[in-house]
Amino acid sequence: MIKKLYHGTKIYFDEPDLKKAKNRKDFGKGFYLTSNYDQAMRWAIKKLPNNDKNCTAYVYEYEFDTDNAKELHVLELLEYNKEWLDFITPNRHEGEKEIVYDLIYDRMADSTGDELVANIESYWHKEKSAEEVLKAIKFRNGEFDQYCFKTLKALNCLKRLCYIELYKLDKSPKIIGRH
Fold this sequence. Notes:
Blueprint: E1 2-9, E2 31-33, H1 37-45, E3 57-65, E4 74-77, H2 82-94, E5 103-107, H3 113-124, H4 130-137, E6 145-149, H5 152-155, E7 158-169, E8 172-178
Parallel strand pairs: 4-5
Antiparallel strand pairs: 1-3, 2-6, 3-7, 5-6, 7-8
């Protein structure tokens, strides 16, 4: 089975470079994608100034060959529970200590970024229990997801199809072109 995945960013690149990936993310260092095109568009324009055609962002479209991915060491975090919270919290605070998985997949929390960060901070500092945090950040029914490709072996399961160039117009993505 082949699935389409999208990566939204304000940076143009030809190939993903894991050396440039930031470490203090949900799953540590990696190349993050989603199956939700609209989510990738929001990721792309998030930090762009509004109504400035000279500041562009990109949504990269990839084909993910899931048949070839069967050789990967994959972690699926499909339930939002204490295990999930205990996995992402230290990654966000201390960074990943070692790469154990080639690919990590989960659905995304329903909270806004700031609300999610605040709740995870409260859990890290033992101000809130796992139950309180999980209740506060609510989850959609698989509407949004994220895939973190952590190794070259995992990246080799991706084939770039195209990229879309866009800018932020009245706080929404406006497509300039498809390449």
